UniProtKB/TrEMBL annotation, chain A:
Keywords: Membrane, Transmembrane, Transmembrane helix. The chain crosses the membrane at residues 6-27. It comes from the Bacteria. It holds the Pfam family tRNA_anti-like. It comes from Flavobacterium zepuense. This is tRNA_anti-like.
TrEMBL record, chain B:
Gene3D superfamilies: Lipid/polyisoprenoid-binding, YceI-like (2.40.128.110). This is YceI family protein. InterPro entries: Lipid/polyisoprenoid-bd_YceI (IPR007372), TTHA0802/YceI-like_sf (IPR036761). Residues 23-181 form the Lipid/polyisoprenoid-binding YceI-like domain. SMART domains: YceI (SM00867). Pfam families: YceI. PANTHER family: PROTEIN YCEI (PTHR34406:SF1).
Length: 132, 183
């Protein structure tokens, strides 16, 4: 009888521990790691631009908060930002290679929306996947 | 005579340049907001990808922050912010359109001066008039504007559920910093 009570106690303790572990995992789950996610879309930068220029809401519905891979030519490098095809802003968490100017690249990042002030599509948490 | 004409053309060009080449901008402005209640977990988000433009002749100032660009330390907080509070799928951006009152670029120095910035802040589909004291300085080709103001979630029709309302401050303090350069 004593033994049975002991087992029940162990089972309860294990359940509590598991519950705590999972709820902790839920509350403190890791933030997204865009660089290790598979891209939902692989598009030329020019296509992303024309879709946003054509219908912003429709483009937002398709791309917003999604991981995408864009290809195009790097037209500007400033500190932690690469601009692709003059109109796609790619923000990097780690400073990108400044030598990629005028090169054709594929960049993976998360679409955060369209910036009307400068007429640009903005991506953050970018990484360069391939460079010519 | 020919020389004089040349000088006049140069002067006209210079005036033209002064009048129209006075737009300053940034695409990597910083906005932080904090709604932490003492002794509870930090509630704070930061955007490092805010765009802003300043017309130095008129003082007109505009800023645009993409809501998805706000990052949090805790993933679940970011999720709640986007899905429950600002509804960033429906309202993907926050904008500010206003004016730096009495801005005179020629008087700006590296030492920051205080100016009043007033304008309309729009987010979550609601607009509110904001006024705050901003510090403005200029060194070389860069105008730096920093400041802070407070807003209430209720001003923008954002409801904080009673379950978490104790952990989220009633007043949210927002700080901003823009380093605007002449393109």
């Amino acid at each position: 009888m004593k033994k049975k009570g002991f087992i029940v106690l162990i089972v309860i303790l294990v359940m509590i521990a598991a519950g705590a572990f999972f709820s902790y995992g839920y509350l403190y789950k890791d933030v997204r790691n865009i660089s290790s996610e598979d891209a939902s879309f692989k598009v030329p930068a020019s296509k992303l631009i024309s879709e946003y220029a054509g219908n912003q809401q429709k483009a937002d519905a398709a791309y917003l908060n999604k991981t995408v891979e864009i290809t195009g030519k790097v037209t500007q490098v400033t500190d932690s930002v690469l601009t692709v095809d003059s109109q796609v802003f790619c923000g990097f968490d780690v400073k990108p290679d400044a030598g990629s100017i005028n090169k054709n690249v594929t960049i993976k990042g998360r679409v955060i929306g369209f910036d009307e002030l400068f007429g640009e599509v903005k991506l953050d948490q970018c990484t360069i996947t391939t460079k010519e | 005579m020919k020389n004089l004409r040349f000088i006049i053309v140069v002067i006209i060009l210079m005036i033209y340049n002064c009048m129209f080449a006075q737009k300053y901008g940034t695409k990597t402005g910083n906005i932080k907001f904090e709604a932490t209640v003492p002794s509870f977990e930090e509630v704070a988000g930061e955007s490092k990808t805010t765009s802003a433009a300043l017309d130095a002749t008129t003082g007109d100032f505009a800023a645009l922050a993409l809501m998805k660009g706000f990052r949090f330390k805790v993933a679940l907080m970011e999720e709640h912010f986007n899905e429950n509070y600002v509804e960033s799928d429906k309202y993907p951006k926050a904008t500010f359109k206003g004016k730096v009152e009495g801005l005179d670029v020629s008087k700006l120095t590296a030492d920051a001066k205080t100016y009043t910035v007033t304008g309309d802040l729009t987010l979550h589909g609601k607009t509110k008039k904001i006024s705050d004291a901003a510090k403005v300085s200029k060194s070389g080709n860069t105008i730096t504007i920093t400041g802070a103001f407070e807003v209430k979630p209720g001003d923008f029709a954002i409801e904080i559920p009673s379950v978490v309302s104790k952990k989220v401050a009633d007043k949210i303090s927002v700080t901003y910093s823009f380093q605007l350069v002449k393109p």
